[in-house]
Predict the structure.
Amino acid sequence: MKAQKTYKIRCFQQIDSTNTYAMKNLDSLCDKEVITAGIQTAGKGRLNREWVSDGQDNVYLSVVLKPCDSIHKNLPLANLTQYMSVIVCKVVEKYRVSASIKWPNDVLVNGKKIAGILSQASIQGNRLKGLVLGIGVNLNLTREAINKIDQPATALNLEIGRSVNKQPLIEELLDSFFENYELFLKTGFSLIERDYITRSDFLGKEITVNSLDKISTGVAKGFTQDGALVLVGEDSQEKIITMGDVTCS
């Protein structure tokens, strides 16, 4: 017998952005409510990038999370995107492809981006109104659509040579996420550390990290207990980087 769902889904045929909708309606949305869309007209990615969202058979969804009423220092909210990136990898790998993670949370197949994750939080003083975790996965795209993307990208159908049924994949993604979600809130990055490291194939390589106002170059050594990136520069000094966009040199 299947376990009872701990989440509920609100579906839209077309929307500007599932994250935008969730953030605007955060007060009226419930904890663990999921917003999905057939098409996004203004999809959003990390670092204010556009997410191409004109294919109806791809995954565009946002998860509303309200784990507590106030901010706790030990609550691993910043690591939820990393937790989700591991979940996405495991789901994609069931289609017999090899997935990797580009820190902090991009999912790649054959070095090309197949999924992105965006986290947004609403905080008033010490009160956490909620957090929205947005996920976009390229399931069924044409080569023409892929070529419109401003970075190396791919789609699952192009990797396996056939179309992918969206609904079962969404269900598996959400079931897997919520299966250990409560445990992750208690344990943080340590719960996924091994799975995360084994999929981080840029470790030990020379990389560049663009942190909006600063560019750092060095060898990716590993991660802190909080999931931050440890970078060793030319001066052999370690730098701890908490956010940014990674490219291999």
The first strand starts at residue 8 and ends at 15. The chain has two domains: 8-198, 206-248. The mean pLDDT is 91. DSSP finds seven helices and twelve strands in the chain.
